[in-house]
């Protein structure tokens, strides 16, 4: 999720694909729409998979995925992410998917809707997340993470 900010002067790296300055919030939620992990602060121009690779969650999953996910647990990510033993991604639809692959993608997409709903609820509860006017990036980071923590109550 992109959190729009007031851009620091003389820096284009904060501008996302919609040409608005933002910072990226990466979130992991459960089926109850509770945030289980958040990572915030990468610039808006960064790709989702790069944000994930820079996150502490990724480092932990590389070394000890069972500690976070259990023996048979997985994260469910969209096609921006790389398939890994801890990350389930959809099959690329090149027009030649088998019926089983199409069904898998359908189920996969329905599960991924949880994070979209979670982010929708988060922005609904904390309207300030739609656009933060502060240029103090430390304040912005603290504010967004606090909203994420309070979301779970």
UniProtKB/TrEMBL annotation:
<keyword id="KW-0378">Hydrolase</keyword>
<dbReference type="GO" id="GO:0016787">
    <property type="term" value="F:hydrolase activity"/>
</dbReference>
<comment type="similarity">
    <text>Belongs to the HARBI1 family.</text>
</comment>
<keyword id="KW-0255">Endonuclease</keyword>
<dbReference type="GO" id="GO:0004519">
    <property type="term" value="F:endonuclease activity"/>
</dbReference>
<protein>
    <submittedName>
        <fullName>DDE superfamily endonuclease</fullName>
    </submittedName>
</protein>
<keyword id="KW-0540">Nuclease</keyword>
<keyword id="KW-0479">Metal-binding</keyword>
<dbReference type="GO" id="GO:0005634">
    <property type="term" value="C:nucleus"/>
</dbReference>
<dbReference type="GO" id="GO:0046872">
    <property type="term" value="F:metal ion binding"/>
</dbReference>
<dbReference type="Pfam" id="PF13359">
    <property type="entry name" value="DDE_Tnp_4"/>
</dbReference>
<dbReference type="InterPro" id="IPR045249">
    <property type="entry name" value="HARBI1-like"/>
</dbReference>
<keyword id="KW-0539">Nucleus</keyword>
<feature type="domain" description="DDE Tnp4">
    <location>
        <begin position="2"/>
        <end position="152"/>
    </location>
</feature>
<dbReference type="InterPro" id="IPR027806">
    <property type="entry name" value="HARBI1_dom"/>
</dbReference>
